[in-house]
Amino acid sequence: MLKKREKEKLIFEINITPLTDVMLVLLIIFMVTTPFIIQGNIKINLPSAKAPSETSLNKNIIVAITSDGSMFLNGNSVKDDQELLQGIKNEINKTGNTTVIIEGDKMAFHGEMVRAMSIAKEAGAEKLAITTIPDEGKKGNK
């Protein structure tokens, strides 16, 4: 038990180190997610998922698939599989990034998504990511 004099000597201070840590983490999260918010030149209705999607920090290679099956590589229309293959190879050589992000409309056929992933792997992609949006309708359900 503390003596009376020791009790009087105790100084109470607020430790702001945890607050600073949380603020820095939030700042980093916002800095990383901002390019994905700004990037939206092709209208794609993304499916929802509970798990967060994996993102790359710099010079993303993005393959977008619309509901009618049209494919885009970094916002540019792609006519066929060979053009997509060559475009991904060129982007990997140019940027050095081997992560390909697939943005598929939720009404796009599953086969189109699988075909795009197969082409990306053939082009030399080491990692594949599928973009989703947060599932806000099921927040309370687990």
Describe the structure.
It is built from 4 helices and 7 strands, in the order H-H-E-E-E-E-H-E-H-E-E. It has 142 residues and is α/β, with parallel strands linked by helices. It has a domain of 95 residues: Nucleotidyltransferase, domain 5 (2-Layer Sandwich). The strands form 2 sheets. A 5-stranded mixed beta sheet has the order 4-3-2-5-6, with helices on one face. A two-stranded parallel sheet has the order 1-7. Helix 3 crosses helix 4.
Q: Quick one: biggest sheet? A: 5 strands, mixed
Q: How far from one another are the termini?
A: 47 Å
Strand content: 15-25%
Total helical segments: 4
What structural class should be given to the helix and strand makeup? alpha/beta
Rg, Å, rounded:
23 Å
Helix content: 40-55%
Total beta-strand segments: 7
CATH-derived topology of the domain at 42-136: Nucleotidyltransferase, domain 5
Order of strands across the biggest sheet?
A: 4-3-2-5-6
Could you tell me the mean pLDDT? 79
Multimeric state of these chains? single chain
Low-confidence stretches: 52-57
CATH architectural label of the domain at 42-136: 2-Layer Sandwich
CATH class designation of the domain at 42-136: Alpha Beta
Principal-axis shape:
elongated
